[in-house]
Specification:
Blueprint: E1 5-7, E2 12-13, H1 14-22, H2 28-35, H3 45-54, H4 60-66, H5 75-91
Antiparallel strand pairs: 1-2
């Protein structure tokens, strides 16, 4: 059996990248999370992108529907940040605007 190594730093083969993609890893970052491929020297990232681009990602259909439903609003982080700024200003003896 001929093994084609994509990531020589961690010994990750093209077959392993495809297996991770079939399991739902659709981006180079997700492949890196699953296998460490692309996290050392980075020379394999383009190869991983190429492999991922060749076949349909099994979870892409789900991503399209999930994107339509926001999970958080923009106001939440702003409110939390304002509370932190007020707390720091109060503890420093400054008047918060």
């Amino acid at each position: 059996m001929n093994r084609v190594y994509v990531c020589s730093c961690f010994g990750i083969t093209e077959k392993q990248v495809r297996e991770h993609a079939e399991a739902g890893a659709c981006t180079p970052r997700q492949i890196a999370s699953a296998s460490k491929a692309g996290t050392d020297c980075g020379s394999c990232v383009r190869s991983i992108q190429s492999i991922l681009g060749r076949g349909a990602c099994p979870r892409r259909e789900l991503l399209g529907t999930a994107a339509a439903e926001p999970t958080t609003t923009v106001a939440e982080p702003v409110v939390a940040q304002s509370a932190v700024v007020r707390a720091v200003a109060t503890s420093a003896g400054l008047e918060a605007a």
